[in-house]
């Protein structure tokens, strides 16, 4: 068995107990007791307590889609919701998601103690507001802002909101410059990769910006500055560079993109800024690839966003966005609001939102420091490289990338390997063992290419990775022994980026 540093994990991790499946109905009915049938499993559209949990008067069906007529004991309501949640399965075996699924006991306790704090109410919770500022200033320094004290940032619900704010700032700066020059502010456009995360499609749709997608190809697997001049014009508000493409985990070379924009400015006078979508890589590159120039060391990078609940290692519900300087965030996007007796600046899309995750981020910054983050990210990185090497060595597969950027990699079925099965079938076989490993088509221009992707997060140890490889080899061996093709009717990708 190979050895490597494994990420922190609970001393005694627990798997959810098994639960019996239930049926659903769109016709809920009035709750009624079944005293004569203690072993009754429950009627369609109802939740029924297992008799082992029942107290007097509790062997009752609860409607699923209508508000119950009366109250129930808190223990009863808890047990029902607890048992429903069990059916989701084991989140640590979900290798489809980037979102963190584990924090330590102290973090969980801190979460429970601070879940009632409203992050936006800075007058009522001034210490939480001060901690928020400390966090984004730490990130500003981590991302090499030229003058961290002159940068500005904020927490967000997630990296999607952070991207929306970054895009809005790009659009508003472009509008102001156009008005100052006496030019039209109609038809703004944003240049991005065809492999961009869906939040950028939403941004362009919601804020009337034309998306200009640069297609990825076998030759140019990411947006790398190639042919960028064909997409940029005087209406371009910015270019999005992705540090960790969600399809494959690959970095887009921000320095090459910036160099291409420098050449365009020299030839045309167009000064086009970059927003770096560092949803994943923003919390990987500073620790594992510190020599890689992708951040505020490049003058053309105006803003950077990241997802704290991905490789920031916090539970779901937190993102960050930081601007290179105060001037890069147009002041008219900042509102001075009166809230519960105090004045505060606000430039988030959401208003009331939880403050607990901000405190969890601060806890992790104090708990891990630079060295701790390096160790955790390096452990995930080592597991990703191990898995990519093992899968790449199998004759059934060709790697798309090798997991050496963020701890994420993808592979495709080797050409000519088989006509009897595809990666969707492999995904289904692995799901039988509890593993969630999606198969999906690549974006426009490569939609005929189907890949599978593994996201290695804190909590996927080397031992678990070795168990996964046993299951992958067994599944491939089973599929390769098929004497006729597996059915494909109705087989579609339900995976979305």
UniProtKB/TrEMBL annotation:
Its EC number is 4.1.1.15. Residues 27-37 have a biased composition (Basic residues). Keywords: Decarboxylase, Lyase, Pyridoxal phosphate. SUPFAM superfamilies: PLP-dependent transferases. One of its GO terms (molecular function) is glutamate decarboxylase activity. Residues 7-19 have a biased composition (Pro residues). Residues 1-48 are annotated as: Disordered. Gene3D superfamilies: 3.90.1150.160, 4.10.280.50, Type I PLP-dependent aspartate aminotransferase-like (Major domain) (3.40.640.10). The keyword Lyase applies. It catalyses: L-glutamate + H(+) = 4-aminobutanoate + CO2. Its cofactor is pyridoxal 5'-phosphate. Belongs to the group II decarboxylase family. This is Glutamate decarboxylase.
């Amino acid at each position: 068995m190979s050895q490597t540093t494994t990420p922190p994990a609970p001393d005694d991790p627990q798997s959810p107990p098994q639960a019996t499946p239930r049926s659903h109905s769109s016709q809920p009915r009035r709750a009624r007791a079944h005293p004569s049938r203690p072993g009754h499993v429950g009627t369609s559209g109802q939740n029924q307590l297992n008799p082992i949990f029942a107290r007097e008067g509790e062997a009752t069906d609860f409607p699923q889609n209508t508000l119950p007529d009366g109250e129930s004991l808190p223990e009863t309501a808890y047990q029902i919701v607890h048992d429903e949640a069990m059916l989701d399965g084991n989140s640590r075996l979900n290798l489809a998601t980037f979102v963190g699924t584990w924090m330590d006991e102290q973090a969980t306790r801190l979460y429970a103690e601070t879940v009632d704090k409203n992050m936006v109410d800075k007058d009522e919770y001034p210490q939480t507001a001060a901690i928020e500022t400390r966090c984004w200033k730490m990130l500003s320094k981590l991302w090499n802002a030229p003058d961290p004290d002159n940068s500005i940032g904020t927490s967000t619900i997630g990296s999607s909101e952070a991207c929306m704010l970054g895009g809005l700032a790009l659009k508003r700066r472009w509008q102001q410059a156009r008005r100052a020059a006496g030019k039209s502010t109609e038809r703004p456009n944003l240049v991005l990769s065809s492999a961009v995360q869906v939040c950028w499609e939403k941004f362009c749709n919601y804020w009337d910006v034309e998306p200009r997608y640069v297609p990825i190809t076998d030759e140019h697997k990411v947006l790398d500055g190639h042919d960028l001049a064909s997409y940029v014009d005087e209406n371009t508000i910015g270019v999005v560079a992705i540090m960790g493409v969600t399809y494959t985990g690959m970095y887009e070379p921000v320095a090459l993109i910036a160099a291409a924009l420098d050449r365009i400015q020299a030839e045309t006078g167009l000064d086009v800024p970059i927003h770096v979508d560092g949803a994943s890589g923003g919390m990987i590159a500073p620790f594992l690839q510190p020599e890689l120039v992708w951040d505020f060391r490049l003058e053309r990078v105006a803003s950077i966003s990241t997802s704290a609940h991905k490789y920031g290692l916090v539970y779901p519900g937190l993102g960050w966005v930081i601007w290179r300087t105060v001037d890069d965030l147009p002041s008219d996007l900042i509102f001075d609001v009166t809230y519960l007796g105090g004045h505060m600046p606000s430039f988030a899309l959401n208003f009331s939102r939880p403050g607990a995750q901000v405190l969890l981020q601060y806890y992790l910054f104090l708990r891990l420091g630079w060295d701790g983050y390096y160790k955790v990210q390096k452990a995930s990185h080592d597991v990703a490289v191990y898995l990519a090497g093992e899968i790449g060595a199998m004759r059934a597969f060709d790697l798309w990338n090798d997991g050496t950027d963020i701890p994420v990699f993808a592979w495709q079925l080797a050409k000519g390997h088989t006509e009897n099965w595809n990666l969707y079938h492999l995904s289904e076989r692995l799901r039988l063992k509890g593993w969630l490993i999606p198969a999906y088509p690549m974006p426009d221009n490569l939609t005929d290419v189907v890949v599978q992707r593994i996201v290695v997060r804190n909590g996927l140890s080397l031992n678990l990775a070795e168990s996964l490889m046993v299951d992958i080899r067994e599944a491939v061996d089973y599929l390769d022994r098929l004497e006729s093709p597996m059915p494909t009717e109705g087989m579609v990708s339900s995976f979305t980026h």
